[in-house]
Write a structure and sequence with these properties.
- The structure is a single chain.
- By secondary structure, the protein is an alpha/beta fold.
- The chain has 31 helices and 16 strands.
- Strands 9-8-7-10-11-13-12-15 form an 8-stranded mixed β-sheet, with helices on both faces. It has a 4-stranded antiparallel β-sheet with strand order 3-4-5-6. It has a two-stranded antiparallel ribbon with strand order 1-2.
- β3 and β4 form a beta hairpin.
- α3 packs parallel to α6 and α23 runs parallel beside α24.
- The radius of gyration is 31 Å and the shape is elongated.
- The termini are far apart.
């Protein structure tokens, strides 16, 4: 008796805390591993699909294989302890293995059709073993729940109470995942880097393993006798075999991940696509799953038909998805919340967290409740609890894999986010039907049987033949109740169709302006589209200026300051090369204006443009043809649809010029294109005398993030220089970094002589259009170089693959308007570089005078 009380207390307290720790470590690993592997195999849609499939495929396999290869005779807590220890060992090992496998992969991958296969092999080899162990934890603990002495009633475990406790374990695991998500996203990775975050997760696994091992010694375990003891109670509640439950919970997983992907994309437009935004949305979604699981556990104790409740929950999800679609696309974007007025980034995070809660939490609550309800619907007296739980978890995970892959790669590109959500609404209704209709069919069959008995031969003993549970009059209250639900189901079906039809597309202003939509208003949109990796828009203002938008911000435009920057980036890259360049790599197509500026240099014979989103060159380029010289159709141009970092690591080509104009570093994933290792890969792809240029935004930035970009670049190109681009009112806007393999003096007169050649007529016109009438005008944008800016750069954080510090520094400066202050802080250290500029003494003297004037150019 005392042992039973000890076991009861243990199962009601300690194992829940163990599952919290297990879930926390798992989410830290997931964030870290995805971040590391994206550095290796790229961040393209195909690469992300491979990563998700490998990670979740391991969870799927582990949930099924535990019951097959681990005997029920082994104490479940010892099994759980061994699993956690193995996960921790794998996590520690992967810190070393991932970089090694990454180097092998980049050495073997030369692009082409085999590239995806190699990415899949690398991901599976690294992720499958530890994720299989993660997937086995819930089936392992289910055997412990099944054997608990306090669950026995008349010598048999109580099915519903056991399933309810499994729901609480599932909820505890998700609670830990919320903690791990926030801990990694807001603290560990921000301050300590990838390796340290992994070691924290390893330590959690070790602590959980030791605690589970000691708990196993104190807690008795009785192996269930399948002939006598099993999971007691009606496993299906008269609704037929559980195959329909597996289908329903698989569809539930599909809709959950599909909706999460779709809502995350839309809310990232609204909040800003920073790493903090993604962490907040994921944390809210996981919290909803956890709370919903706990609610589902409570409901199980109070219902005799969990399958029917599961069906109603799935039907309810149809309306929850419709509600979420309305919130993220029609309601939240128009909230008059001016985040730029917040004195601290933390206040913005709180507002965004609240808005994410309003949109995501209701649906997540129902998805979370679905899992314990499905568990309670499939348990059988003769089946090992580990088998039953493993099958439910595997079905749900398999559906989640499909949702996470199909939604971004198929549904959104083909039907848009609104079309994808419509399909998810219908899918949830189908899931509800799969769970509910067998129960209705069974009760209808019983009703037909009763009618036949009444009309049948007097030889029939109707009393004996009356179905179990029927009344003396031959009626079955339960059957009648279910049959009365048929009209309700018809009404709900009509409601689901109406809910799906009323889902509207995201407004063009959300795609264009993001969080600034209430102040900018709806734009005149020439094009709005949703691709596999981004939502894009092209708009036109009343004065004729055109803007290209991605991730809820202007990425390129024909406004004067943007045209000046884009032309500066292109022409400076070509002119600073001592010999006219023949081969060029452009990272990021944008509106094609930088690439177009380079393409008109008569020496350029070959150009490669690397772009992640296929919609951009195919569609956006057409709206900027006059400004980009129709570069997308130029025969010497080849467009590669891949993550630029992945291309840089795996390509075998070298170039005279490489110019990088990626999206703003606060956008999640963009910081990988500003790391020391990335700049090193650029240097390795340069021919002798080659030139590398890099765009640096001063707007929507912090001084720390700008210092980080410049200091990191200068570690690879120590003789690098910085060139400024101001807006039309003379305010600091952005800058260009220039690094050269052979840093020789720049001859201003040689530049002018090159520009004056007849074949450079297009180049002269292109420069004149943005205010650069002479070579001196171009050189007057000089802002400084590394050796002069040493005091300003002191203490700057170097952005590396192992810390990606920049995405956290930049992520807190989305609303900053300090570009002029950042520029002026650099100007204070600018000195005229006598050893850098050469030419006729009169030319150098004029340039020197211009650079002495703080307001120039």
């Amino acid at each position: 008796m005392r042992a039973e009380r000890t076991s009861g207390r243990a199962i009601s307290r300690s194992p829940y805390f163990l599952f919290v720790g297990s879930g926390s470590a798992a989410l830290i690993y997931e964030i870290v591993w995805f971040q590391v592997l994206q550095l290796v195999i790229g961040a393209s849609a195909a690469s992300l699909a491979v990563l998700l499939s490998a990670f979740m495929g391991g969870l799927f396999a582990g949930s099924l294989l535990l019951a097959r290869y681990v005997s029920p005779a082994t104490h479940p807590l010892r099994v759980f302890a061994a699993i956690e220890a193995a996960i921790g060992a794998g996590g520690a090992l992967l810190i070393v293995l991932m970089p090694l496998v990454g180097r092998l992969y980049t050495a073997a991958d030369g692009g082409g059709p085999s590239s995806i296969a190699l990415r899949a092999i690398a991901s599976v080899l690294l992720l499958l073993p530890p994720t299989m162990l993660m997937g086995a934890t819930l089936p392992a603990i289910s055997r412990y729940v099944e054997s608990a002495p306090d669950l026995r009633t008349s010598g048999l475990p109580d099915t519903r109470l056991g399933a309810a406790r499994l729901g609480l374990f599932y909820g505890a695991n998700i609670l830990g995942a919320v903690i791990g998500c926030l801990l990694a996203g807001f603290y560990l990775l921000r301050w300590f880097g990838l390796a340290s975050a992994s070691l924290v997760a390893v330590s959690i696994n070790a602590a959980v393993s030791v605690a589970a091992w000691f708990l196993a010694k104190r807690t008795p375990y009785v192996v269930p006798n399948r002939g006598v003891a099993g999971l007691n109670g009606p496993p299906y509640s008269g609704s037929g075999p559980p195959r329909g439950v597996y289908v329903a919970i698989a569809i539930s997983g599909f809709t959950a991940l599909g909706a999460e992907v779709t809502w995350t994309r839309l809310m990232s437009l609204l909040f800003g696509a920073t790493t903090y935004t993604f962490s907040m949305i994921l944390a809210v979604f996981l919290a909803g799953l956890g709370v919903g699981s706990a609610i589902g556990a409570v409901v199980i104790r109070r219902t005799t038909s969990p399958r029917a409740v599961l069906g109603w929950v799935q039907l309810g999800l149809s309306f929850a998805i419709a509600y979420g679609a309305w919130m993220v696309a029609q309601r939240l974007p128009y909230w008059p919340v001016d985040t730029s007025l917040a004195p601290a980034a933390a206040l913005n995070f709180q507002a965004d967290l609240f808005r994410a809660f309003l949109a995501v939490f209701p649906g997540a609550l129902l998805w979370g409740a679905s899992v314990p309800l499905a568990l309670a619907s499939v348990v059988q007296p003769e089946v090992d609890a580990g088998v039953a739980v493993g099958r439910v978890y595997a079905a749900n995970t398999l559906g989640a894999i499909a949702g996470a892959v199909v939604s971004p790669l198929v549904l959104i590109p083909l039907a848009g986010s609104h079309g994808a959500q419509r399909m998810l609404i219908i899918a949830s209704a189908i899931s509800g039907g799969v769970a509910l209709l067998p129960a209705v069919a069974a009760e209808r069959a019983l009703s037909r049987l009763r009618r036949r008995l009444r009309r049948g031969s007097p030889k029939w003993n109707t009393t004996a033949a009356r179905p179990r549970g029927s009344s003396e009059t031959g009626s079955n209250p339960k059957a009648s109740g279910v049959l009365r639900m048929v009209p309700v189901l018809i009404v709900l079906t009509i409601g689901v169709v109406l809910a799906a039809v009323t889902v509207s597309p995201a407004p063009a202003g959300l795609v264009a302006w993001g969080r600034l939509l209430p102040w900018h208003g709806e734009p005149f949109a020439l094009y709005v589209g949703e691709g596999v990796s981004a939502s894009i828009a092209v708009t036109e203002e009343s004065n004729g200026w055109r803007n290209f938008h991605v991730s809820g911000k202007v990425e390129a435009s024909t406004e004067p300051q943007d045209m000046r920057l884009q032309r500066l980036l292109g022409h400076l890259s070509a002119l600073v090369h001592e010999h006219p360049p023949k081969s060029v790599l452009v990272v990021g197509f944008g509106a094609g204006i930088t690439a177009g500026a380079l393409s008109i240099h008569p020496s350029v014979e070959r150009m490669v443009i690397c772009e992640l989103e296929p919609l951009i060159p195919r569609v956006v380029s057409r709206y900027f043809g006059d400004a980009n010289y129709d570069v997308a159709t130029d025969l010497k141009v080849r467009i590669v649809y891949d993550d630029a970092r992945h291309y840089m690591l795996t390509a075998r080509d070298t170039f005279d010029v490489i110019t990088s104009d990626p999206i703003h570093p606060w956008v999640k994933g963009a910081a990988t294109l500003y790391t020391r290792e990335y700049f090193e890969s650029i240097r390795n792809r340069l021919n002798p005398g080659g030139v590398a240029t890099q765009w640096v935004p001063l707007y929507e930035s912090t001084e720390d993030s700008v210092r980080s970009v410049i200091a990191t670049f200068l570690q690879v190109f120590p003789d690098g220089t910085i060139w400024r681009n101001d807006d039309t009112e003379g305010r600091g806007y952005d800058a260009v970094l220039v690094g050269r393999v052979d840093a020789r003096p720049i001859d201003a007169d040689a530049w002018q002589a090159r520009i004056d050649r007849p074949e450079y007529q297009k180049v002269r016109n292109s420069l004149a259009e943005v205010g650069f009438g002479t070579a001196e005008d171009l050189l007057a944008t000089y802002l400084g170089r590394g050796r002069d800016l040493g005091p300003w750069l002191a203490g700057a954080e170097i952005n590396t693959d192992r810390n990606l510090r920049l995405q956290y520094l930049a992520g807190s400066g989305v609303n900053n308007n300090t570009g002029t202050w950042i520029r002026d802080s650099m100007l204070r250290y600018r000195q005229f570089p006598d050893d850098l500029f050469a030419g006729d003494p009169a030319t150098v003297s004029r340039l020197k005078a211009r650079l002495r004037q703080p307001g120039t150019p």
